[in-house]
Amino acid sequence: MTQPERLSLGVAARLARYLQVLTQAKKEGKETISSQELSEWTHVNSTQIRRDLSGFGKFGKRGVGYNVDSLVSQIRKILRTAGQHNIALFGAGHLGRAIASSHIFADHGFTVVAIFDNDPEKIGEKVGTVTVRAIEDLKQAVEDEDIVVGVLAVPGGSAQQLADRLVDAGVKIIFNYSEALLQVPPEVTVHTSSPAVDLLYALYFYLT
């Protein structure tokens, strides 16, 4: 299997979409999947799907399709996400608890190993199997738990301060559920998830 040093944004985004569908198909017990089925679920042209995957090796068989389990493993390797990656979650409110209890991260090898909140009444509580900690414990937790991703499920007014703490602790990836526009050094990656923006994006394609 050949792999370039760095994937283009377009290829990486499409591979991530394929992986999402394949992971769900695997959970449902599906053993094989065709490029046409992947196309129907991802809305990516089946020719483009075959082109994307053929660039990394020969995965499928004509008339049979792709082996789901094998393709999940191969795409994780291509995206360099194989193995477990530890997450620090900020915010033990309704959104934070929903994120912590969801299987979405776990299905892709991400584990919430630390939860932080600035509310004294929440500190010490259990969210699943994880105990909520004080923000002041962040730096030590990043070192002890080998945390690579910070997830912000907090109000916008708190997000920048927490992002600064994550950067100071050495975390290079921040997933931002707030509406704040975060200022971070160029070596730190921020992904902001906004349902409103996603809806506008979907509405644009519906109207056009």
UniProtKB/TrEMBL annotation:
Highest classification ranks of the organism: Bacteria, Bacillati, Actinomycetota, Thermoleophilia, Solirubrobacterales
DNA-binding region (UniProt annotation): 17-56
HAMAP family referenced in this protein's UniProt entry, alphabetically: Rex
A GO BP entry: negative regulation of DNA-templated transcription
Highest taxon of source: Bacteria
Coiled coil: none
A GO cellular component annotation in the UniProt record: cytoplasm
Subunit record text: Homodimer.
Binding residues annotated for NAD(+), in chain numbering: G91, A92, G93, H94, L95, G96
The keyword Methyltransferase appears for this protein: no
The protein, known as: Redox-sensing transcriptional repressor Rex
Alphabetical list of Pfam families matching this protein: CoA_binding (PF02629), Put_DNA-bind_N (PF06971)
Subcellular location: Cytoplasm
InterPro entries per the UniProt record, alphabetical: CoA-bd (IPR003781), NAD(P)-bd_dom_sf (IPR036291), Rex_DNA-bd_C_dom (IPR009718), Tscrpt_rep_Rex (IPR022876), WH-like_DNA-bd_sf (IPR036388), WH_DNA-bd_sf (IPR036390)
GO molecular function, one term: DNA-binding transcription factor activity
Source species of the chain: Capillimicrobium parvum
Keyword Iron-sulfur: no
Gene from which this protein is expressed: rex1
Main location group: cytoplasm
Residues in CoA-binding domain copies: 83-181
Family indicated by similarity: Belongs to the transcriptional regulatory Rex family.
Function recorded in the entry: Modulates transcription in response to changes in cellular NADH/NAD(+) redox state.
Keywords: Cytoplasm, DNA-binding, NAD, Repressor, Transcription, Transcription regulation
